[in-house]
Structure formats: C-alpha cells, structure tokens
Amino acid sequence: MITKTQIASVIRNKVGQLEVSFNIDQNQPVDLYWTDEANANSVHKTLVSKNIKSPFTFDDPLQGKKRIYLILTIAGKDNFIFAERTLPITGLNNFRDFGGYLGASGKRVKWGQLYRSNHLYGLKPDAEQYIKALGIKTIIDYRSINEIKTSPNTFVGEKHTFHLDASAQTAELAAQFAADPSDEDRALVESVIRDIPKELVNGEGKQVLEQYRNFVVSDKSKNAYRQMLNVVLDANNSPSIQHCRGGKDRTGYGVLLIQVMLGVSEDDIIYDYMLTHDNRLERNKIKMAAYRKITDNEDVLGYLLSLIDTRESFVIEILNTMKKVAGTPSNYIKQELGFTDEHFKLMQSIYLE
If you ran DSSP here, which 8-state letter would residue 179 be given? Predict the structure, then answer.
C-alpha cells in the first residue's frame, strides 16, 4: 500500500519476491536499482531493470538474509530511495523501520536509523546476524524489570541499552497474553474473570484507552519518554531500536513522539501505528483460538482481544489527549516534556533528508 505522501513502497510476498509499487508519471522512464546502503546516491548499487512499470516484482538478490534498499532513478537524474518497512527477521513479526515518511520542510525520515520492534528474546542465529548487520548502536527497552528478567534480550551488537519503564500495566498484561501458548493462559483467563471489574470485561477496550491517556498524563510516563527523546536526540546513539514486548503500546507511543518532532503528519502516524495490526494479525488469531479452548465467555474473549489488538481509536486517543492538555501534540512535547523549538530542529537535522 502507498500512502498519500509516499512515492514508492515495497513488500515481500509469500514466495520471498519483492513487489514494488510507485506513484510516478508513467511517461517518465523509471529504472530500479538495489543496494545494501541507506543512501539514495550510493555508487554501490546494482541495476534490477530499466524502464519499469508499477507494480513490478523481482527476486530478492539477498534472499532476505540481509537488509536491502531500493533506488528508483527517474528520468535518468532523480534518485529516490525506499525499503521494506517490516523486515523479514526470523521469529520477529513486528520489527520495522519507520523511515521514509514525509516530515518537516518537505524532507523525509531517513531509512536505516530508527527501528521499532517486539522484544529481542531468544533470537535464532540468522535473526541475530541480520540485526547485527544493521549496525545498531542503541536499544531503548520499555519493559518492566519482571519482563526483562523473564525474557532478556539477545545481544545484537548494541553499545548501549536504556531501560525506561513507563509503567504501562495494561501493556504489560497484554504482553503476557501475547506470549507463547503455555499453562499460563488458563491462569491469566481466570485472573481476568476474578480480578478485572466486570464493567471492563468486554471488547470495548476501555482499559486500553485509559492506559493510552496515562501515557500522556502520568509523571512516570513523562519521565521515561523524556529520557527516550534525549537518547534519540544524541546522534551518536543512532541507529537505534526501541521496543517493548509486542511493539504495540509502549513502543507505539515512543515512536509517535519522535514522529511528531520530525513533522510527520497525523495520517502517517496513524498509518504507521496500524501496521502493527497487520503484522500481528495471524499471531492474534492463534492466541484467540487458544483462549477459546479455555473459555466460551464472549465478554472475556472480547476483553482479551482488546488487549492484544491494534485499533485506530487507541492512537487517536493519544493525539486527542495531547490536544486537550496542550492544544497540539507539538505543544504537548514542549509544554509537558520540556523540549524547545531548537530540540525539534535538532531532531529534524539528524533524521530528515
């Protein structure tokens, strides 16, 4: 899918081929190259095909074993770089690059600098090598001490790891529900029936919406995300990965803050958040099938789904809460987190091109 602000996109189909789509005047000749460098003007590039038409499909020359970037040369002079957003890493269903979006002053977010993911626990050797080749310097881990103790990250070559617990209790509960099937599933279902107020046990997602509002208003959350932005504002910490357990709630909010500072539109922020829905769809189906073996209570099942689901209403609740607090999301970051116009300009100078 190409959003309104995208020129080109690429997805990997079920047989490992890359499918390229682009919005370019069909009367202009378009040539396609690949490279392993996040540089539109790389001299280390290989021609895939000349004068292509959208959509165009070809075999991945790196066979998904290493990150690939694509370059469109338009009318023989203008180069446009793009890449897969969700990376084909074994065991990780939500490892993404949030580069490529249109930001402030008509510039775009750089590829290969800002990654988001589910947790990096128990990575297989091929996944470990794939991520190490990305040159990650910094990991920002939003999980609680208990989560980290239970599922420590695999080392992927990073120089620094920042543990920033935003105290997102519902996100942590959702992370537990999204864990591998085990005997714990029954205990968790029983806990919902026993411990959660009955008025919340349904599919409306009221508890998740409250959690998302707390991201914006709670002091502990503000402190954690203030630290995150300071980490990202240091160019020496890039490329970085930020993650929680599933890469949805805590990570989604952290990514949103960066995107606001970079001038990414609300439409693209929502679009990027909702990619998690597609990435976790099969996983969530498996989890719900497991829960249905334990209970047939539709209210309980609806509640469980609300915890692991990704909904537009959730991210819109964040944006609306920011607006209620400070007028706009940008003003919120300045007023409540203490950043200035100069910090915004610095963020943009590091991550836009």
Answer: S
Beta-bridge partners for 31:
73
For 283, the 3-state DSSP assignment is helix
* CATH number reported for the structural domain that contains residue 8 in this entry: 2.60.40.10
Residue with tokens 């249905």: 292
Show the tokens assigned to 157.
Answer: 């070559």
Amino acid of residue 157: G
Contact 254, 102 (CB under 8 A): no
Rg (CA), the chain: 21
Average pLDDT over residues 277-288: 93
What's the pLDDT tens digit per position in 334-345? Answer: 999 999 999 999
**Does one domain contain both 70 and 127?**
no
Cα–Cα–Cα angle for 165, 170, 175, rounded to 5 degrees: 80
Q: Which of 35, 59, 84 is the last residue of a domain?
A: 84
Contact 159, 138 (CB under 8 A): yes
**pTM, whole model, 2 decimals?**
0.94
Q: What separation, in Å, do the N-terminal and C-terminal C-alpha atoms of the chain show? A: 23
Q: Roughly what angle, to the nearest 10 degrees, separates helices 169-177 and 184-195?
A: 140
Q: How many CA atoms lie within 13 A of 159 on its CB side?
A: 9
User: Which of 276, 260, 246 has the alpha carbon at shortest distance from 85?
Assistant: 276
The reply to whether 70 and 204 lie within a common domain is no
CA 303 – CA 48 distance, rounded (Å): 48
Last residue of a domain, one of 43, 62, 84: 84
Instruction: Please give the helix or strand (H or E) that residue 224 lies within, else none.
Output: helix 219-232
CATH assignment of the domain containing 195: 3.90.190.10
Which domain range does residue 122 map to?
A: 91-351
On the question of pLDDT at 130 being above 80, the answer is yes
Q: Are residues 194 and 320 in the same domain?
A: yes
State residue 73's pLDDT score: 96
pLDDT digits (tens, 9 = 90+) for 6-35: 899 999 998 999 999 999 887 899 999 999
Tally of structural domains, the chain: 2
Residues 152 and 28 in one domain: no
Is residue 147 located within the same domain as residue 23? no
